[in-house]
Amino acid sequence: MSDPTAPRPFDDIRALVTSRPAPDADAIAATRAREQDLTKPAGSLGRLEEIAAFVAGWQGKAPPEVSSPTVAVFAANHGVADQGVSAFPASVTKQMVENFRKGGAAINQICLTNDLALRVFELALERPTGDILLTDAFDSERECAATIAYGMEAIAGEVDLLCLGEMGIANTAIAAAVLHALYGGTADEWVGRGTGVSDEGLAHKADVVGRAVARLDGERDPLVVLQRVGGREIAAMVGAILAARQQRIPVVVDGFVTTAAAAVVHAIEPDAIAHCLFGHVSAEKAHRAALERLGADPLLDLGMRLGEGTGAALAAGLIRAAIQTHRGMSTFSDAGVAGPGGE
User: Fold this and answer.
1) Phi, psi dihedral angles at 332 (to 5 degrees)
2) Which residue intervals of the chain are DSSP H helices?
3) Domains in the chain: boundaries
4) pLDDT in tens, 107-126
């Protein structure tokens, strides 16, 4: 018989959340002081100025620098795809991963445009998670925790800005189930068209998600929710978010599915996603509601719903522009220009 007092795999995850580092107040102050001396009216670059201070605080460096930005795309398959909740079969996940590797996807083009490294991680595509309508996604707490740990290890190396993305047929149903379980309401509120299902398909998808979440019988523990109705890519992104916090790496969250991973971390401890920026609000109907729950103000609103990290990668270009502007602009004294109040 197992010892009920023995440490459980999720205990280590929760302990990691509580040991999170804080932003560097001195780096933030130095960045804001330099911002006031740049050759422009105070506050005239609006949110770009906030971004520069944000990145400086998490990097602990003034002025901040983004020289090794990376997009990490996690790909997984889901047993619930067998329930017909997507317009495409699960085999498309593997096909799209190959497309990423060949450079033919939208994310490849955006990474090329913004000079971003791209890493693609396959998560046992030949072995989908359990069909959440019938059983738990992960067989055990240990399996789920191991996938979180994999995501933590995936961002090793030179990374100073991490953009998260995903690929996985049926994963908008999974994300909807996670958010529905965490935040309540009805399945209809959290389910969207994903890959473009019909009206009939949308109603069926909501029914599947609603019945899957009903199996939880009101369970709200975020890690248990992840284990029971989540997916491997969401668990891996939870790990990546946690590891980035430990390494003081700013994170750019992509769309609806990636936000579900951030929501799991936020539900453990709201401050645990303080190092995250949200790249965009997607056209997936519940994404805006999820962002509101997180208190997040997305950088872009372009009506996108592709996934792959595309919104985060576009936002990374904006972030790089903010950092380069802060670093490269002359100060009033350097330029010999009269500053505020000058002649």
Assistant:
1) -55, -45
2) 9-18, 25-37, 47-59, 91-102, 106-114, 141-153, 171-183, 187-190, 199-214, 222-229, 232-246, 256-268, 287-294, 310-328, 332-335
3) 68-321
4) 999 999 999 999 999 999 99
Other Cβ atoms within 10 Å of 287 Cβ, number: 27
SS3 43: coil
* 50 touches 182 (CB < 8 A): no
Half-sphere exposure of 111 (CA within 13 A, CB side): 25
Q: Which of these is catalytic: 35, 219, 308, 343?
A: 308
226: its two tokens: 């992840």
Q: How many other C-beta atoms can be found within 10 angstroms of the C-beta atom of residue 22?
A: 12
pTM of the model: 0.95
SS3 251: strand
50 counts as catalytic: no
pLDDT digits over 244-280, tens only? 999 999 999 999 999 999 999 999 999 999 999 999 9
75 and 105 in contact (C-beta within 8 Å)?
Answer: no
Inter-residue long-range contacts of 286-293, CB under 8 Å, 24+ positions, other chains counted: 286/176, 286/179, 286/189, 286/190, 286/191, 286/192, 286/256, 287/192, 287/255, 287/256, 287/259, 289/189, 289/190, 290/179, 290/183, 290/256, 290/259, 290/260, 290/263, 291/259, 293/183, 293/263
Give the per-residue pLDDT at 6. 66
Give the confidence band of 342 by pLDDT, cuts at 50, 70, 90: very low
Backbone angles phi, psi at 77, to 5 degrees: -115, 160
Q: How far is CA 63 from the centre of its chain?
A: 25
* Mean pLDDT score, 140-158: 94
Pairing of strands 251-253, 276-278: parallel
Residue range 68-321 forms a domain whose CATH class is alpha beta
Task: Indicate if the pLDDT at residue 56 is higher than 80.
Answer: yes
The angle, 0 to 180 degrees and rounded to 10, between the axes of the packed helices 232-246 and 9-18 is 40
